[in-house]
Amino acid sequence: MLSKGCRIFDSSMYIKDGMIKTIEYIPEDMEFPPRLRLLHWDAYPSKSLPPKFYPEHLVELNMQESQLEKLWEGTPRLTNLKKMELMESWHLKELPDLSNATKLERLDLAWCQSLVEIPFSFSNLHKLKVLAMFACSKLQVLPSTMNLSSLKVVNMAGCSRLRKFPDFSTNISSLKLSNTLVEQVPASIQHWTRLRFLELSYNGKLKTLKNVLEGVSHLNLSYSGIENVSDCIKALQGLQHLNLSGCRKLATLPELPPQLMFLSANDCESLKSVSCHFHTPNAQLNFTNCFELSQQQQRAIIQQSFLTERKYRLFLNGWALLPGSEVPAEFDHRARGSSLTLPYPASSRFKICLVVAPNHQVRDYRVSQLLRSRIGKCEFHLSSIDEAIRVYRIPRFRTEHLFIFHSDCIEEDQSISERVFEFSSKLHDFEIVECGVQILTDEMERSWAFENDSKI
Questions:
Q1: pTM for the full model?
Q2: Nearest-angstrom CA–CA distance, 150 and 169
Q3: Which BP terms does GO give this entry (predicted)?
Q4: % of the chain residues with pLDDT over 70
Q5: What is the rounded CA–CA span in Å between residue 287 and residue 291?
Q6: 320 band by pLDDT with thresholds 50, 70 and 90
Q7: Per-residue DSSP letters for 295-328?
Q8: Contact (CB, 8 A) for 124 and 148
Q9: Is there a domain that residue 81 lies in?
Q10: How many domains does the chain have?
Q11: Domain with 381 in it
């Protein structure tokens, strides 16, 4: 750790809390303490560290927003180094030989936009846990083989010239490869048994996905060139979130895992069919602006039962958003406008359908909208289109859409004779054209549950 009494620095610099603060320049004969353990110097102004810099005792090197083009010459013994952060060092062209950095756990090179190559010496970083190379836009060359046994998190999103899939470790749990030129996921990913998060969005070269591990829980293919999704996706029993937004060439959607909790397929302008075995009862289904869906396919989505286990029903409900201009017939209590009154029913469980229309005069793009409902004397927030936009960033719809969801009334009050449903948009960015309610009974839910169990 550096101390405030260190006298080797020019008067234009000072040290505070172990951090070097620089004003203008570095003297040519400047020397660092020979046993320096921590170096944190933001906006370092020179192209390299001084010739008499000795990094052998470094534990942490943090030089964000530096003018560095390279760090040092040779292969020093970096056996103590655990953390290296060089993010936003725009001019960094060359990484040092890290063959001896056998304790390095975190390497952050985000926004190092002049880097072209990851050196082969990376193959020795067996303690590395996090590799962050976001927006290294010139990166093209990766080592042919690496197996970094400790590597858990890799972020190479925005490496827009990268064509090779980074097959670095079988223990990776999170891999972000958005906005690259990667064309396919290799079969070797089947050995990545700990992979849970895979992000391949904005990859225009990616046309199909054949190899995905069963344990993946979050898969993001949004705005990629995906033209078809393999039927094997049904076997991904761990998949909970699937994002296909903006996949404009995707025409069909196969049967999905029943455990799926969230599907976003908004702006899939070529999507014409979804599996007739559409049984994801807990899922939140976003088909915003999917105008090519046939009436039969729309019916398959609308007829989702959105069932949950009763003990969780107040906290976890499915919903669907898709093009449509009329409440379906099974919602036998209907009314124009944003409110509906019906006699107090024996059941307190409902399936609700709203026809919502955008208000094109509102240009407010905040995502804090809220859909409210008052049911009898009980007022509470429902899972709603606005809440979904806030939480799941669902884009705004361009024309009339149907929003369908399941709801319970928290409070039972037998003293009232009718139940009133009221819906509104907090930001007035859409209006409720029509609303409909289907009263659910135990018999109906048992029937739906049996149908879903028989399909799984």
A1: 0.82
A2: 8
A3: defense response
A4: 75
A5: 9
A6: confident
A7: HHHHHHHHT------GGGTTT---EEEEE-SS--
A8: no
A9: no
A10: 1
A11: 333-455
